[in-house]
Amino acid sequence: MAINMSRFKDKVCYVTGAGSGIGKATALSFAREGGKVVVCDVNGENAQNTVNEILKNGGEAIALTINIANRDEVESSVNETVKQFGRLDCAVNCAGVAGPVSKRIHEYPEEFWHQQINVNLTGTWYCMKFQLAQMLKNGGGNIVNLSSAAGLIGQPENSPYAASKHGVVGITRTAAREYATDNIRVNCICPTAIETPMIMEGRRKLAYNPEAKQAAINFQAMKRMGTPQEIAEVALWLCSDESSFITGSAIAADGGALA
Ligand SMILES: NC(=O)c1ccc[n+]([C@@H]2O[C@H](COP(=O)([O-])OP(=O)(O)OC[C@H]3O[C@@H](n4cnc5c(N)ncnc54)[C@H](O)[C@@H]3O)[C@@H](O)[C@H]2O)c1
C-alpha cells in the first residue's frame, strides 16, 4: 500500500467496523489517499492491527475501541476524533452484525432480533447523530452507511438483518434531505455477497459449506462474490467531490444481482 496523496489529503476520515472486511479495506484506502483515519471497532485488537498497517506504510491513523450500540461511546469517539485531528470530513459506517442463526420469523430468537436492530440500526443512527453534529460545526462533510441488498429486498431466514438494513436506507435518505443545504451528503451502499469474515465465518459459514458458497456466488449475475476493496472504492467515491451531485442514494454494489 503506497501512500498516494490525492483525493483525501488531510481529510479526517472516520470508519466504523474498520478492524475487518469492508471497513478495514475502506480505512486502508483512505490512508493510501492521504486521509487521517480514525479506525473504530468493538474489537480493539483488530482496530490496532489496521492502524499498524497504515502506520507501517507511512499513513496517519488512530484506533478507538467502541461499541456503536452504546451512544456514549459513539459520542466520545467523535469528540476524540476532533481532539486529535480538529474536524471530521468523512464517515463510513461499516460496523454491523448478521446474527448467528438462520430461521423464519415464527421461530426466530428474539434476543438476536434486538442485537441486530441495536447494532445495525440504532448504532448507525448514533454514529450519524454525532457525526452530523460535528459536520455542521465544520461546515460540511460526507457520510456513507453500509446497508445491504437486504436493505432493498427481503432476506429469507434473517428478518432482523433485513429490517435493520431497510432502516439504514431510511435514515440515510432522511438525513440526505435534512442536511442537503448544509454541504453534507449522505448515501448508503447495498452490497450482495462480499468475501469477508461476516459471510465466510459468520452466520452462513460459507468457508465450510461449498454448496452454500456456490449458491452465494450464483446469486450475482457476474457469478462471483465481490471483494472488500470493490466496496471501499464505492465508499471513497461517494466521499469524494467526484460524486458531488449524489445524496440520499442507496447504491447497489451487487454484481448485477438485483438487475
Ligand atoms: N460481507 C457481505 O457480504 C456484506 C453484504 C452486505 C452488507 N454488508 C455489510 O457491510 C458491513 C461490513 O461487513 P463485513 O462483511 O466487512 O463484516 P466483518 O464482520 O468482516 O466486519 C464487521 C466489523 O464490524 C465490527 N463490529 C461489529 N459489531 C460492532 C459494534 N457493535 N461496534 C463496533 N464495531 C462492531 C466487527 O468487530 C468487525 O470488525 C456490515 O454492516 C455488513 O452488514 C456485508
Please state the second-level CATH architecture. Answer: 3-Layer(aba) Sandwich
How many separate domains make up the residues?
A: 1
* Low-confidence runs: none
Q: How many individual β-strands?
A: 7
For the record, give the distance between the C-alpha atoms at the N and C termini, rounded to a whole number.
34 Å
Q: Assign the CATH topology.
A: Rossmann fold
Ions, cofactors and other ligands present here are: nicotinamide-adenine-dinucleotide
Query: Strands of the largest sheet, in order across it?
Result: 3-2-1-4-5-6-7
Looking at the structure, what is the overall shape?
globular
Helix content: 40-55%
How many separate helices?
8
How much strand?
A: 15-25%
The secondary structure category is alpha/beta
Largest sheet: 7 strands, parallel
Mean pLDDT: 97
CATH uppermost class = Alpha Beta
Explain this structure.
The chain has eight helices and seven strands; from the N terminus they run βαβαβαβαβαβαααβ. It has helices spanning 21-32, 44-56, 71-85, 110-137, 159-178, 197-200, 210-219, 228-239, and strands at residues 12-16, 36-41, 60-65, 90-93, 141-146, 184-191, 250-253. Strands 3-2-1-4-5-6-7 form a seven-stranded parallel β-sheet, sandwiched between helices. α5 links the parallel β5 and β6 (184-191). α1 packs parallel to α2 and α4 (110-137) runs parallel beside α5 (159-178). The longest helix has 28 residues, at 110-137. The two termini are 34 Å apart. Bound molecules: nicotinamide-adenine-dinucleotide. Nicotinamide-adenine-dinucleotide (NAD) is lined by residues 16-17, 19-23, 41-43, 46, 66-69, 94-98, 119, 123, 146, 148, 191, 193-194, 196-199. Nicotinamide-adenine-dinucleotide is lined by residues 16-17, 19-23, 41-43, 46, 66-69, 94-98, 119, 123, 146, 148, 191, 193-194, 196-199.
